[in-house]
Amino acid sequence: MAEKLYLGLDIGGTAIKAGICDGEGRLLHAVEGPTEGGEGAERILQNAARCARRCVEESQYGWDRIAAVGAGVPGFLDAVRGIVKFSPNLPLAGFPLRDRLAEALGKPVAVGNDANAAALGEAWSGAGRGVASCVLYTLGTGVGGGIVVNGQLIEGFTGMGGELGHMKVVPDLEAIQCGCGQKGCLETVSSATGIVRMARGAVERGDRTSLALVENLTAKDVFDAAKAGDEAARRIIERAALYLGKSMALVAVIVNPELFIIGGGLSQAGEFLIEQVREAFRKCALERAQEGVGIVAAALGNNAGVVGAAGLARRLAS
Ligand SMILES: [Zn+2]
């Protein structure tokens, strides 16, 4: 019998990616299409189903080879009932995505948070391949996360497991409001949004910095300035790295993973960022909880989500 294959769908704010993976997490074929989130939930569903069908049709594999389908979506999900509770960029709140996709595609479907899916992808065939327990931080507009322990994704009671961006690590006196309603979340300092906000603050305060001359500041501008020796920019990146390392120190005494993986847009900064995170982790973590623990960059890049979504499908079908 031919090997079972798994179809992953990474449903993002602007694009949907569909990909076919084998049982080892190798991405065999992938296509992309528009989300058109502004057109409503039904349109998103149609586009996801269309993207999935096109992926299979354009590949050398038939639908009968696909054992199950997995879909990763940004936001909070009820993974048990397969319903999206809240999505920051997509009008999917309350939408029974799992059952509607299953109906449209005629396959069993699993849904999950996109960051959890990405963690599963990295653990399966990315930077965490061969590692039993690893934790992924996705640093982008926000901070997402996912925890894999002994090969199992830890989603928790209602799917809130691995929401690492909402660990309250910033002391009250420095804490600002997070999009989630709390104050002092990791996301407020260690995301692209947080870094840009701190940079604007430095410029407004009149700190001496080359960033004052940059229009439409991005996190990359701040990294570039820090690398070039700009003191204010360097302090901002150091702060983002400090709270990341601090949050990892907390995770280290809860799940004691072998590996922390850093993915998302900010991981483009590479060793410049990661070395600072390692230093902060070394300072903050209990000595025995950091023994032999690695902190590395993600390996799958933009494919982590689609591979991980296929991983959600594999979990369902095996
Ligand atoms: Zn928060």
What do you see in this structure?
By secondary structure, this protein is of the alpha/beta class. It folds into two domains: 5-122 and 302-317, ATPase, nucleotide binding domain (Nucleotidyltransferase, domain 5); 130-299, 2-Layer Sandwich (Nucleotidyltransferase, domain 5). The chain has ten helices and twelve strands. It has helices at residues 41-58, 97-105, 114-125, 187-190, 192-205, 219-227, 231-254, 271-284, 287-290, 304-317, and strands spanning 5-11, 15-21, 27-34, 66-73, 76-78, 83-86, 109-113, 134-139, 143-149, 152-153, 259-263, 294-297. A hairpin with a 2-residue loop joins strand 9 (143-149) and strand 10. Helix 1 packs across helix 2 (97-105) and helix 5 (192-205) packs antiparallel against helix 7 (231-254). The longest helix is centred in the last third of the chain and has 24 residues, at 231-254. It starts with a strand and ends with a helix. It binds zinc ion. The site of zinc ion has 6 residues, from loops. The site of zinc ion (ZN) has 6 residues, from loops.
